Amino acid sequence: MTALQDARVLVTGGAGFIGSHLVDELLRRDAASVTVVDNLVNGRRENVADDARVRLVAEDVRSAAALALVDDADVVFHLACLGVRHSLHDPRENHEVNATATLELLERARAAGVGRFVHVSSSEVFGTAQYAPMDEKHPTWPETVYGGSKLAGEAYARAAYRTHGMPVVVVRPFNTFGPRSHFEGDSGEVLPRTIVRALCGLPAFVYGDGEQTRDFLHVTDTARALADIAGCDAAVGRTVNVGSGAEVTINDLVSTVARLAGRPDLEPERLEARPGDVRRLLVDNTLVRELTGFEPRTSFEQGVADLVEWFRGRPESPQEMLGRIEDRNWVAAGAGVTA
């Protein structure tokens, strides 16, 4: 068992959505120190816990300064990435961050003798489900360069284990949601974007027929699963899926948000399908349960209700947030490294 207690931990992308919640979880588990490296283009300083054990280094994960931080770490969680929509308008940079930077980090971690390297991948490596629920042996047919670049990062991580015996684990979170999720720019996700629009009294945008399904897991559950897997010796060399095991259509998501935001009268506006949009995702959690006993704790309904209130409590008004949403964010210019 690799204990996170008293460990020196490096979290790439740790000022982003999932990364910052992981930092919170590591502090709860009494990590000795947590170093966050994030370029703060999509990540935010205010996401990072105000704790003496936490150090934020504002650097791009591709930089020499970021790589040097690996040398002082017992455990590395690699979450820094560029997302699905970004890959549609800047595939080369997407590959550089998600694949090439992963290889560089692995090589540095191998040289430094890091005790555990957790590569955080994505369910997007699968593409659309060929069968469901989707276990770790499900075929990988990515729909986008993002999915392809995350799959390349996975392959490098597994190769580091098989070739050099590096203590590597690959984790594939499915669709994570909760506080600090991105609504803006090409990082904006459907759930927070829909909530912001509802709070402005505007209908949701549904791309395509809305029968696409996703497997939504609350971010606190995702962070807990990542920490559990990192501490599990039996997970070394394995690839592990993490999700809720429940399927939600985009149409159901939209109606749930409208109801919980107090605007059940809002009817969605239907637009053309997005390019590279995965049709179906549903996890098989058998392996993570066997390895760690993991079970989700927050339901989709409760998590959405809490997220609506979180957005209501933000210092920005809904109208100010709406101004930062790009309706077709797969053609947006500019993006940053986050998680």
UniProtKB/TrEMBL annotation:
- Which chain positions lie within coiled-coil regions? none
Domain NAD(P)-binding span(s) in chain numbering: 10-306
Domain of life, per lineage = Bacteria
Cross-referenced Pfam families: GDP_Man_Dehyd
PANTHER family cross-referenced by the UniProt entry = DTDP-D-GLUCOSE 4,6-DEHYDRATASE-RELATED
Under which name does UniProt file this protein?
Answer: UDP-glucose 4-epimerase
